[in-house]
C-alpha cells in the first residue's frame, strides 16, 4: 500500500513522527483542527493518526478521498466510524495493549484513593482545615471488587488489587470461568456481581450492549455504599443515575476518568464532577510517558508495515 502523506490531528509522542519520517513518510501535525478545517484538508493525505479527541466521522471519511488508513494511537476506536471506513476500504488500526498498564494503574489508584478519601483530605488540608474525622475511610482488604470486562486492563487490575487483599469477581462474555480462574477472578453473571460488590470497575469498550450498563436499575441492585470506577469509556455509566445514587447515598463514591462528553460541558456531568464523593480525572488513563511512547511507536510501525517498506525500527520500541 502507498502511504506517503500522513496527517496527525491529536498530540502523539514525537517517536511516532520521527519513525514515520525516518521511513520516508511525510508527516504534518495539525492539532485541534476544527471539523470544517479537517474536512477541507483531509483529501491531501493518505493516512490519518488520531487519539480520542478527533472524531473521524463518516463526513471526514467521505472527504478523505485519498485516505487509505486511519490509525488510533490508543485502544478504543469509538471515535472512528469503523463501519463507514470498512465500506470505503479504509483500514482502521489501533494499538491495544500499549497503554493497558497505565490505564490499570490509574484504576488501582482511584480505588485506593476512594477508600481513604485521599483526594478530598488533601484538598481540605491545602484549604487550611484539619478534618481527621471527616475523612476517615475503610480498608480495602477483604472487600469484593467486581470487574466488568476481563480483557487486557480488567485482568491487570484484578492481579494488582488481589495484592491488596481484595476478593475479585468478574464477568466478560468471551472469557470462561476456567480462564478467569487462572488470574484468580471468580466468574459470575452480572446479576450475581451487583449485590455483592463493594467496588465495581468497568473495563469494556463502549458498545450498544455496554452503553448505560450502570443505570438506575443496576444501582438499585447494588450494595449500599458501592463505589464505581470508570477508566474505560464515558457512556457506559448513565451519569444522571449515578449522580442520583451518590446524592441519595446508595453509591458511596465514584472514580471517573471518562465522561459522556469530553471535555464535559453538560450540567449533569459537571455536577457529577463537583460531587464531594467523586474523584474525577480528565481522561488520564493513558497519559504516561511510557504508554504514549509505546502507542506512538506501535501506530507508526503498523503504518510502515502497510507500506511494505524495508522498515527501520524504533530504538524506543521496548519501552
Ligand atoms: P480489551 O479488548 O482487552 O478488553 C475489553 C473486554 O471487554 C473484552 O474482553 C470484551 O469481551 C469485554 N466486554 C465486551 N462487552 C462486554 C460486556 N457487555 N460485559 C462485560 N465485558 C464485556 O480492552 P482493554 O484494553 O482492556 O480496554 C478496555 C477499555 O478501556 C476500552 O474501552 C478502552 O478504550 C478503554 N481505555 C481507556 C483508557 C483511558 O485513557 N481511560 C486507556 C486505555 C483503554
Ligand atoms: C484509549 O482508548 O486508548 C484511551 O482512551 C487512551 C487515549 O487515547 O488517550
TrEMBL record:
Span of domain D-isomer specific 2-hydroxyacid dehydrogenase catalytic: 6-309
Gene Ontology molecular-function annotations: NAD binding; phosphoglycerate dehydrogenase activity
Gene3D superfamilies per the UniProt record, alphabetical: NAD(P)-binding Rossmann-like Domain
Pfam families with a match to the protein in the record: 2-Hacid_dh (PF00389), 2-Hacid_dh_C (PF02826)
Domain D-isomer specific 2-hydroxyacid dehydrogenase NAD-binding: 109-285
Keywords for the protein's UniProt record, in alphabetical order: Acetylation, NAD, Oxidoreductase, Phosphoprotein
Subunit structure: Homotetramer.
Family label: Belongs to the D-isomer specific 2-hydroxyacid dehydrogenase family.
Name of protein: D-3-phosphoglycerate dehydrogenase
Amino acid at each position: 500500500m502507498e502511504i506517503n502523506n500522513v496527517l496527525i490531528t491529536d498530540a502523539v509522542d514525537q517517536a511516532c513522527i520521527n519513525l514515520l519520517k525516518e521511513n520516508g513518510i511525510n508527516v504534518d501535525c495539525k492539532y485541534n483542527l476544527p471539523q470544517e478545517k479537517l474536512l477541507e484538508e483531509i483529501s491531501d493525505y493518505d493516512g490519518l493518526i488520531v487519539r480520542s479527541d478527533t472524531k473521524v466521522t463518516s463526513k471526514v471519511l467521505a472527504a478523505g478521498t485519498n485516505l487509505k488508513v486511519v490509525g488510533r494511537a490508543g485502544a478504543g476506536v469509538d471515535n472512528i466510524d469503523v463501519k463507514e471506513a470498512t465500506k470505503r476500504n479504509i483500514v482502521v488500526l489501533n494499538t491495544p495493549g500499549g497503554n493497558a498498564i497505565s490505564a490499570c494503574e490509574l484504576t488501582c489508584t482511584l480505588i485506593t484513593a476512594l477508600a481513604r478519601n485521599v483526594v478530598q483530605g488533601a484538598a481540605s488540608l491545602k484549604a487550611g482545615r484539619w478534618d481527621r474525622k471527616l475523612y476517615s475511610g475503610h480498608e480495602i482488604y477483604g472487600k469484593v471488587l467486581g470487574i466488568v470486562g476481563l480483557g487486557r486492563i480488567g485482568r491487570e487490575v484484578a492481579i494488582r488489587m488481589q495484592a491488596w487483599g481484595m476478593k475479585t469477581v468478574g464477568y466478560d462474555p468471551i472469557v470462561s470461568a476456567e480462564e478467569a480462574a487462572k488470574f484468580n477472578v471468580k466468574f459470575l453473571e452480572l446479576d450475581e456481581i451487583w449485590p455483592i460488590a463493594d467496588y465495581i470497575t468497568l473495563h469494556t469498550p463502549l458498545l450498544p450492549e455496554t452503553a448505560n450498563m450502570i443505570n438506575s436499575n443496576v444501582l438499585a441492585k447494588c450494595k449500599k455504599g458501592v463505589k464505581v470506577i470508570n477508566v474505560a469509556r464515558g457512556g457506559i455509566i448513565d451519569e444522571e443515575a449515578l449522580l442520583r445514587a451518590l446524592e441519595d447515598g446508595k453509591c458511596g463514591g465514584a472514580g471517573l476518568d471518562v465522561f459522556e462528553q469530553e471535555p464535559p460541558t453538560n450540567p449533569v456531568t459537571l455536577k457529577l464532577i463537583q460531587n464531594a464523593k467523586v474523584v474525577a480525572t480528565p481522561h488520564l488513563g493513558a497519559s504516561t510517558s511510557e504508554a504514549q511512547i509505546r502507542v506512538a511507536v506501535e501506530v507508526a510501525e503498523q503504518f510502515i508495515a502497510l507500506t511494505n517498506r524495508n522498515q527501520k525500527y524504533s530504538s524506543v520500541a521496548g519501552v
